[in-house]
Amino acid sequence: MQQTNRKLIRVVAAVIFRAAAQGQRQVFATARGYGDWKGWWEFPGGKIEAGESAQEALVREIREELASKISVGKKIADVEWDYPDFHLSMQCFECALVSGGLDLLEAQSAAWLGADALRSVKWLPADQAILDKVAALL
């Protein structure tokens, strides 16, 4: 249950897939380039601004953070997670790259991960919560 003294942060995450060798799929992940969680891995995205739908926020965030355009598909999961200083409410969507090179404008690193490498990076706790669902889509 969310504590009333915690700040609520509403965010969206893009779980961007691509086709890889032998019919396998890969998912795009980024390592944070700033803040308390610098170097931890996450699915790219960001805060939902006032008046935006989750899908609109996701398209905007990927344009701002990765200079790319995505198409937003079905919702994969909703994650509620208590961090030490805030409560995170995250909506995660299956996405596809439409255009752009996924340029790292904010992240320090990025990788395309297959099922065998999905758990090889240090995920943020809220993102780690959906890894089983993501693995099932790879």
Helix and strand composition category? alpha+beta
Q: Write out the CATH superfamily name.
A: Nucleoside Triphosphate Pyrophosphohydrolase
Overall mean pLDDT stands at 94
Instruction: State the order of secondary-structure elements, H for helix, E for strand.
Output: EEEEHEEEHH
The CATH C-level class name: Alpha Beta
**What is the global morphology?**
globular
Unreliable stretches (pLDDT < 50, length at least 5) are none
Strand content range: 35-45%
Number of strands: 7
Question: In the residues, how many domains can be counted?
Answer: 1
Q: Share of helix among residues?
A: 10-25%
| Major sheet attributes | 7 strands, mixed
What radius of gyration results from the CA coordinates? Answer: 14 Å
What distance separates the N and C termini? 32 Å
Note the total helix count: 3
Could you say what the CATH topology is called?
A: Nucleoside Triphosphate Pyrophosphohydrolase
Q: Judging by the overall fold, what is the CATH architecture?
A: Alpha-Beta Complex
